[in-house]
Amino acid sequence: MMILAPSMLSADFKVLGEDLKTTEENGAKYLHFDVMDGIFVPNISFGMPVLKSIRPGTNLVCDAHLMITEPIRYVEDFAKAGADIITVHLEACEDVNATLAKIKECVCKVGLSISPDTPVSALEPYIEKVDMILIMSVYPGFGGQKFIPAALDKLAETKAMLDAKGLQVDLQVDGGITIDNVEDVIKAGANIIVAGSSVFSGDVEANVKNFVEIIEKYE
Ligand code: DX5
Ligand code: ZN
Questions:
Q1: For residue 195, how far is its CA from the centre of ligand 1 (angstroms)?
Q2: Of ligand 1's atoms, which has the minimum distance to the CA of residue 8?
């Protein structure tokens, strides 16, 4: 299944409720919720209270991307706040297996991410324990960065690794995705497309429609 996951990080919070409705009505299926702690990444965003507040106002699947050190400490809180999927960074976990098990125990879908400097091979011990893999195509921490082309090879390598084991795991890509490169990441194997600035700058409705039109061709 092909999915557009608009990243709220780039939204205009004055009109957040309206803009989320616009994304939902025009074919986005996930809401990508970027959590930053100022330690794992050099930026701070938002956390559980914000998720708890927006959750009842949307039917989008809430996809929490935790860019925080030792995320196991907060998995339960994000699950309670309404996350449907919780993605943690491999680099941020002291015990990756325990962290993934904790997400599962909280009845959320399990996501595991790697930053640009981490090789795909690092994911291998965990691929049978996850529902989604997130390949970062920028250094995590900020919206609006330029896509790192090496992510294409990493997506293809991950897809090949999953296919070789016959695993049905979603493959998400996040960072610098635009209307112009979205087909490249899909061809490389991604099926969940995160887009922040290219969805929320300018005309949100037109942006979502443009993305969905392209993505749906690959259903
Ligand atoms: C970056 C975040 C992204 C970010 C993407 O650390 O994980 O989700 O919002 O923003 P764009 O699409 O603008 O690169
Ligand atoms: Zn993200």
A1: 7
A2: 9
Active site residues per annotation: 34, 174
Which atom of ligand 1 is nearest the CA belonging to 137? 14
**The token pair that represents 186 in the structure block:** 């899909």
Stated pTM of the model: 0.98
Distance (Å) from CA 169 to ligand 1 centroid? 21
Q: Express each pLDDT in 30-68 by its tens digit.
A: 999 999 999 999 999 999 999 999 999 999 999 999 999
Using a 6 Å cutoff on CB, does residue 143 contact ligand 1?
yes
The string of pLDDT tens digits covering residues 129-179 is 999 999 999 999 999 999 999 999 999 999 999 999 999 999 999 999 999
Distance from the first to the final alpha carbon of the chain: 6
Pocket probe mutation, ligand 1, options 194, 199, 200, 208, max atoms within 8 Å of Cβ:
194
3-state secondary structure of 215: helix
| Distance separating alpha carbons of residues 31 and 58, to the nearest angstrom | 9
